[in-house]
Amino acid sequence: MTSPTRNPLRAGLHMPRTPDPCALVVFGATGDLTARKLVPALYNLARERLLPMGFSVVGFARRDWSDEQFRAAMKDGVSKFSREPLQDEIWESFARDLHYVSSDFADPAGYRRLGERLTKQDQAHGAGGNRLFYLATQPTAYAEIAQNLKEAELSRVADGSWTRLVVEKPFGRDLESARKLDRSLGAVFRERQIFRIDHYLGKETVQNIIVFRFGNGIFEPIWNRRYVDNVQVSVGETVGVEGRGGYYEESGALRDMVQNHLMQVLALVAMEPVASFTGDAVRDEKAKVFHAIMPIEDIAGSTVRAQYTAGAVLGEQVPGYRQEPGVAPDSRIETYVALKLTVENWRWAGVPFYLRVGKRLPKRATEVAITFKTPPLQLFRQMGSEGPTPNLLVLRIQPDEGISLRFGAKVPGTRSDVRPVNMDFRYGTSFGVEPPEAYERLLLDAMLGDSTLFTRWDGVEAAWELLTPVLDAWASGVSPLRFYEAGSWGPDEARTLMERDGREWHRM
Ligand code: BG6
Fold this sequence. Notes:
By secondary structure, the protein is of the alpha/beta class. It has two domains: 17-168, Rossmann fold; 201-499, 2-Layer Sandwich (Dihydrodipicolinate Reductase, domain 2), CATH 3.30.360.10. It is built from 15 helices and 18 strands. α1 (32-47) crosses α2 and α10 (279-292) packs parallel to α14. The longest helix is centred in the last third of the chain and has 19 residues, at 457-475. It is globular, with a radius of gyration of 24 Å. It starts with 22 loop residues before the first strand and ends in a 9-residue tail after the last helix.
């Protein structure tokens, strides 16, 4: 028996997981993201003893809060949103290292105060000047904050220490604004210091796409145009805009989900094998996929956009998008998108990739469905279907995380009838542990300087290059806005998009 090659260069998945001592500065620390996601994630890292000694957090925001008020608000956030219940003892020890600086993002004096605070903490904790700046503000403030960090000399990297910048999405709202933002951040930080968050990449099941493909020998040989008929990436949400009407009016589903989360998942499904699971290796391969996606020529025929009207979701009456707070009564923003892409490379030429995402659908589910080509001959009688039912591989990203493979099996009896059955893997049953939240993994990786699960500028730019023409065409009336009732699976036109190709959406 041969054993797999051992190569220390391939150790990306096994790197030591204890970061250097450092300070995490969160800009916009009084906002929703900090209390809902960031601090609960840090608390869970602390609980699992994954934070370094000498770690501290400094919240930076306009609100006139003291350290104590900041701690109280964060405690409230952890009690409500942590995946593990708050334990007082762990909280007390963690909260001692939470601090707060109140300042306007435009005020240089605030950055000086921040600098003094950090120096004091460095001395107290021996953090060695390592800093992780996290932009959790409105994106309009990003460039200004970066510039002010530079002017206060906080972006300067002292000998033997590091400074990194974590940027939340959205990274721009079209190609031009994304490039402008990239230039502003690039004037202060180098690309390798910039960690652009796409929280989908922090999800266990999304990372498992790579493990499934390249950690097994049997799938890769059939992962191509010879065997695959089509690939579908679907994200269904039951929620509406959750009080974020103002943000969503500026965004819409294409910017909010497709440009980032869905494109990233598509790239992981479509990319070539990597030689190591490290920073640039994965991102190089993803970039090649982005560049192989053909510009969408027939925007009217290949894209569908729609908005939900009032209806019932999970048995509850919900208002239409236009009735949500902060939304214009005649808004033309899409809450649903379906589109078809082609990846024109050796592996995928001719295989359509269909993406769809929608709010207020009947079910919360994210999945990748890969339909294989049917066998060349129909030797057996298929029950309840026209021709042979194709094999289908479904990677369930959330909830009910798992993987299932559909194949035909003989129905017991004296005839040779075939019926599709499923082979099913469930994370919960197989591992019995709850996976960490995406932000736990991503915050830890940023502290470790591991950028594998963060998006690189070339990938972000390529996604905007592909989708900005769609936004422009939509703005000029191409592919009119459709409507769908909340609680339905989206507009009829999304079904037609598939039917025209002789296919259908996988039922989630
Ligand atoms: C965010 C979007 O990035 O992702 C939200 O802004 C969306 O609109 C959310 O609801 C979905 O994330 P998840 O992890 O719940 O699938």
